[in-house]
Amino acid sequence: MAADWDVAVVGAGAAGLSLAMRLARPPAGSRPVTAVLLTAPPGPLRPARRTWCYWEEGEGAFDAALTASWQRLRVRSPDGSAVETATGPERYKMLRSDHFEELAGRAIAASQGVTRLEAVVERIEPVPGGAVVHARMRDRGPVTVRARWVLDSRPPPRLPPARTTLLQHFRGWFVRTARPVFDPAVVELMDFRTPQPAHGLSFGYVLPTGPREALVEYTEFSRRPLAPDAYDRALRRYLADVLGAGSYEVVASEEGVIPMTDARFPRQTAPCVFRIGAAAGATRPSTGYTFSAVQRQARAVAAALHTGRRPLPPRAHSARSRLMDAVLLHALDRGRVDGPAFFAGLFGSVPGPRLLRFLDGRTSLREDLTIGLHVPVPAMLRSALTLPFVPRRPQPGA
């Protein structure tokens, strides 16, 4: 096949943009790569605006687009008692998707090898020596893109079979209060002073960008999302009764549903077609954090392409991390552990820097074992022993 491009990147969410940006900035002396980023036109198929949070040490590649960053995190138990921890050399960073898209857009515009094409991808056809992407442009009708490799970041139509699947579902309001309410130096990472559901857990999440400005989210881990007005009621109650915010203005909002699952996500769907991002298992099953793993995948795929190697994305999380997450999800789903007590206990007993490394899957086996001493061992052990006998069942659409 005579390919038009070396690489076609499908989808312009975090994974697609991250890979396109790395391809647009090749290392000195690397193999030149031509790439096209296929992004949906404005409308229901384009990813909604989101806020991504991640942590890293020192300056990072995306600092110019950050909204804010912090070095202190707080977790509150249902009774209001608080544990505050320092992140050490790492910073907890807040990145809005529209700011990230602007940063990536500038890198792509300055590149000679990467082109952006606005079109809706309808199907990807494997062919000898590559693949053909069949898409439709808004005003110019059908278009085909032939590429040696295709990296597809679109959500799969349904989740793979899993033993346990919970949903992390949330709505957030960007609020401006009439008086100072927030501490700009501390993130309220998990505030469990929210009504706990009969199944799962809930918490408030506050990212303060000033004394009177913050992103305030209501989040649940449970099997099903809520009705839309239920999130608004929960946010109003949290702001009024828990935070004592008084008068405030909602200037923007965002919402989402993140599968937290022990499903096995395929990283390859055809000889020259691969998945990246959440579609390839980048989401950490126990927390929903995705952005850091997306960067690890994008970095590895770009390096493979720039050195002429097959760009199979690496597994986003180690086998040990996936096993620990599967056990925790099973325990939460079966009600064997108290979610608020579990997370509050971890933050109260494990140093902040080590816990962040753990949440990012960067701890050693020895560190994991020491962290394991601070979890409800009988409940987790019971879940670990019963999990192998739980069948993997097909899941509904994502």
What percent strand? 25-35%
Mean pLDDT: 94
Order of helices and strands: EHEEEEEEHEEEEEEEEHEEEHHHHHH
In total, the number of strands is: 18
Termini Cα gap: 34 Å
The chain-level structural class is alpha/beta
Q: Count of DSSP helices? A: 9
By CATH reckoning, the class of the largest domain would read Alpha Beta
Count of domains: 3
Please, what is the CATH homologous superfamily of the largest domain?
FAD/NAD(P)-binding domain
Q: In the CATH scheme, what's the topology name of the largest domain?
A: FAD/NAD(P)-binding domain
Unreliable stretches:
none
Rounded radius of gyration (Å):
22 Å
Helix content: 25-40%
Q: Note the main sheet.
A: 8 strands, mixed
Shape: globular
Describe this structure in words.
- With 398 residues, the protein is α/β, with parallel strands linked by helices.
- The chain has three domains: 5-65 and 95-159 and 264-306, FAD/NAD(P)-binding domain (3-Layer(bba) Sandwich); 165-261, 2-Layer Sandwich (D-Amino Acid Oxidase, Chain A, domain 2), CATH 3.30.9.10; 319-389.
- 27% of the residues lie in helices and 33% in strands.
- It is built from nine helices and 18 strands.
- The protein has helices at 14-24, 97-109, 228-242, 291-306, 319-333, 339-349, 352-359, 365-372, 377-386, and strands spanning 5-10, 35-39, 51-57, 66-70, 72-76, 82-86, 90-96, 114-118, 120-127, 130-137, 141-152, 165-177, 187-191, 201-210, 213-222, 248-261, 268-270, 273-275.
- Strands 1, 2, 8, 9, 10, 11, 17 and 18 form an eight-stranded mixed beta sheet that branches. A seven-stranded mixed beta sheet has the order 6-5-13-14-15-12-16, with helices on both faces. Strands 3-7-4 form a three-stranded antiparallel beta sheet.
- A hairpin with a 2-residue loop joins β17 and β18.
- α5 (319-333) packs across α9 (377-386).
- The longest helix is centred in the last third of the chain and has 16 residues, at 291-306.
- The chain is globular.
- 42% of the residues are buried.
- Pfam families: Lycopene_cycl.
- This is Lycopene cyclase.
